[in-house]
Design brief:
This protein is an alpha+beta fold. It has 2 domains: 39 residues; 53 residues, Roll (SH3 type barrels). Helix content is 33%, strand content 27%. It is built from 1 helix and 5 strands; from the N terminus they run H-E-E-E-E-E. The protein has a 5-stranded antiparallel sheet with strand order 4-3-2-1-5, with no helix packed on it. A hairpin with a 2-residue loop joins strand 2 and strand 3. The longest helix has 37 residues.
């Protein structure tokens, strides 16, 4: 084989190998992080489902969880794969009885209006 043929073969191999590693490596890491998040779910965690529902986990059973949807306290059983993300680590960490005061910083006076 001459040099041009060898160069062409190397170029073709590089064209397939480089994209493979640049695509699969981040994808595997993302899958691993998602699996860790799903494995770490426990009672009291606040989550968001892939459908956009927010709720608190009441129990975890194998591949399903019982989710309490706010504000009506409706219980729903969903597959654990339907969890999109953890909103907070633990409900116990955030005191539910805390009331937040809404403060509006309005520098305008009646004369400015």
């Amino acid at each position: 084989m001459n040099q041009q043929t060898m160069l062409l073969i190397i170029l073709v191999v590089v064209m397939f190998v480089v994209p493979y590693f640049t695509v699969t490596k981040p994808q595997k890491k993302q899958q691993q992080l998602r699996k860790q998040m799903l494995d770490s779910l426990k009672k009291g965690d606040e989550i968001m489902t892939i459908g956009g529902f927010f709720g608190t986990i009441k129990s975890v059973k194998d591949d399903r969880i019982i989710l309490e949807l706010s504000p009506d306290k409706v219980l729903a059983e969903i597959k654990i794969d339907a969890v999109s993300e953890k909103v907070s680590q633990d409900v116990e960490e955030a005191d539910e009885d805390d009331e937040y005061e809404i403060v509006i910083d309005d520098d305008e006076t009646e004369e400015d209006k």
